[in-house]
Amino acid sequence: MTDAGWRVVQAAARAAERLAQAHQRAVFALGGDGELRPVPAGDPDALIAWHPDAGWEAVLPAGDSRRPFIELYLPICSATAARPVTVGHLGESLDGFIATHAGESQWVTGEQNMLHMHRLRALSHAVVVGAGTIAADDPQLTTRLVPGSNPLRVVLDPARRLGADRHVFTDDAAETLYVCARSLMRPGECYVGRAMIVGVEERRDGIDAAEVMRLLRARGCTRVFVEGGGVTVSMFLEAKLLDRLHMTIAPVFIGDGRPAIRMPPCVALGDCLRPRYRVFRMGGDVLFDCDFSAQSAADNDRPAT
Question: In whole angstroms, what is the distance from residue 76 CA to residue 224 CA?
Fold first, then answer.
């Protein structure tokens, strides 16, 4: 059943830009070739519907076992050039940590969440991680556990502390960008291992996340996945650059360790972020899909001061 749902999700992602250009509502079933085929509204084979102003919606019956799986990913599949989507993800313990003090994070969450991360990679044009994630886990950042193409791999390392021997710099699995402070680039330098090096303006607290997003949007990345770690996801969230945040909570207590989200504290509870959210089971874990898109739109609508 998961495989069938994944085919629907992948087909929806492929079709979004074309449907956005047509600017018409349409209802779809899944054809034998793995692509969507239009059907009349109310057709018993109908799975999802495209709305020009809102993107994808599941039209399966509420009790259909495929519906929760498909609904989880449809907001990301709805991304287009005019309405790009950036999603972050962290897996944390019940007491709010993503790793022990020693950096051990494999695995706080379970196998289903690992598959979920690989699906997010497969749906995205780019996957972004910080230097800490590369240093601790040396991930490949590929989609080897699920069907789908590997995304552009983007490593943020403002201080240039990573060596060139890491997986993402030595393999040919996917194109890789290595982003560091412009002042640390050597004259004429273009690559670190097999990764293309890109310099960005440095700030006192690291890299300007907005400049990174402009770089990725210019490359046509309309679906961006900020995979980790906590510092990197927090940076994008604080900069109001995340449309959604997937927080997967595992039934484990670490006691103390590396924190998940950390931002400047609010004095009043009324000033705290309270996004709309949905809840999904992720094996033995629980995933909160937090939606910040409405808050971002409201901020953009406010007059400049």
Answer: 9
SS3 readout for the chain: CHHHHHHHHHHHHHHHHHHHHHCCCEEEEECCCCCEEEECCCCCCCCEEEECCCEEEECCCCCCCCHHHHHHHHHHHCCCCCCCEEEEEEEEECCCEEECCCCCCCCCCCHHHHHHHHHHHHHCCEEEEEHHHHHHHCCCCCCCCCCCCCCEEEEECCCCCCCCCCHHHHCCCCCEEEEEEHHHCCCCCCEECCEEEEEECEECCEECHHHHHHHHHHCCCCEEEEEECHHHHHHHHHCCCCCEEEEEEECCCCCCCEECCCCCCCCCHHHCCCCEEEEEEECCEEEEEEECHHHHHHHHHCCCC
Q: What angle do CA 262, 268, 271 make, to 5 degrees?
A: 70
pLDDT in tens, 51-64: 999 999 999 998 89
Task: Please report which confidence band the pLDDT of residue 103 belongs to, taking 50, 70 and 90 as the band edges.
Answer: low
How far is Cα 177 from Cα 155, in angstroms, rounded to an integer? Answer: 6
Asked if 15 and 30 count as a contact pair (C-beta separation under 8 A), the reply is no
